[in-house]
Structures are given as structure tokens and as C-alpha cells.
Amino acid sequence: MLRERVSDMRAHDLVAPFPTVTLDLPVEQAARLLADQDLPGLIVLDERGRPFSILPGTQVLRLAVPRYCQDDPALARVIDEAHADTFLRALGERTVRDSLPGRPRELPVTDPDATLLEVAALMARTHSPVVAVVDGGELLGAITLQALMDRLVGT
């Protein structure tokens, strides 16, 4: 059986079930979901169950790692592991809503008929490792950067 050419593939060929979170979920729980399932990010749903945003794992890190360590890598080097482990707990009662960027930007959402080049362009433009695939307002799942790259390079 011949493998389908990448140029003929559509988003529906790569979409897979993907975990979602709500805006009011504690960000510490979102971080645990990211870690437990080795995810690059999470799809955040609004009150109607529709994609509201993508929460990349790097955004959770920005909240967990103290600003002074982000600004000065030399300071990060001197903090011992016992203290570094407390950073995630320092997220406290923050929610996913609190961790999202303040200004709206393009939502990484596409339809099932989008080409893989369209999906790749959307990921690149939005700096998102996850693209939600929606059909008629219903979330079908997502395409991850890893799945897209695997298909594009032929693994």
C-alpha cells in the first residue's frame, strides 16, 4: 500500500484526541497534566466548551520559574534543587485563566480540511505547538508539532 503523499493530506488525517482544560482549573493541575502525559501544551476551553486558547507548557514554566531566574541565568545556577522544587507549589491558587497572555492573538484553530502546510503555517505564525481541529463548532482533537513534524519528515 502506497503511503499517502504529504501534499494530499489534510488536518483530519493527523487529528488525534487531546486533553482539554477549563479556564478555572488551577494551573498546578494543568502543569501536572502536561507532565503526566508528556504534552507540549493544552487546549483551553471556554464556558461553552469551545477552544478559547492554547496553553503551551512554556507559559506554565514562565509562571513557575521566578522572574529573577529568567532575567539572570547566573542566579538560576546558584539555587539548589531543594529550593527549585518549591517553584511549582508557588503557583498557589493561580488558574489557567491567570496564566494566559493578556492580549488576544490569533487562536491556533483550523478545520479538518486544512492542508498540512496550512497547519504548519498556523503553528509557526501563532508560536503554538498544538493546533485544535474544529468542525462545526465541535472540537475533534488536535495536531501536535511532533505529529506534524513526524509526517513532514517521513518518520
Q: Can you give the helix content as a percent range?
A: 40-55%
Question: How is the main sheet built?
Answer: 3 strands, mixed
Briefly note the CATH topology name.
CBS-domain
Total of domains: 1
CATH superfamily caption:
CBS-domain
Report the structural category. Answer: alpha/beta
| Overall outline | globular
Assign the CATH architecture: Roll
Extract low-pLDDT stretches: none
Radius of gyration: 17 Å
| Number of beta-strand segments | 6
CA-to-CA gap between the ends?
Answer: 16 Å
Write down the CATH class: Alpha Beta
Q: β content, as a range?
A: 15-25%
Widest beta sheet: strand line-up: 1-2-3
Annotation field: number of helices: 10
Order of helices and strands: HEHEEHHHHHHEHEEH
Mean pLDDT, as a whole number?
Answer: 84
Protein name: Histidine kinase
GO molecular function: kinase activity
Organism: Planotetraspora thailandica
Keywords: CBS domain, Kinase, Transferase
Describe the structure.
This protein is of the alpha/beta class and 155 residues long. The protein has a single domain (6-153), classed as Roll (CBS-domain). Helix content is 42%, strand content 19%. The protein contains 10 helices and 6 strands. It has helices at residues 11-14, 27-36, 57-64, 67-71, 73-78, 81-84, 86-89, 96-99, 116-126, 145-153; strands spanning 20-22, 41-45, 51-56, 109-110, 130-135, 138-144. The chain has a 3-stranded mixed beta sheet. The radius of gyration is 17 Å and the shape is globular. It comes from Planotetraspora thailandica. InterPro entries: CBS_dom (IPR000644), CBS_dom_sf (IPR046342). One of its GO terms (molecular function) is kinase activity.
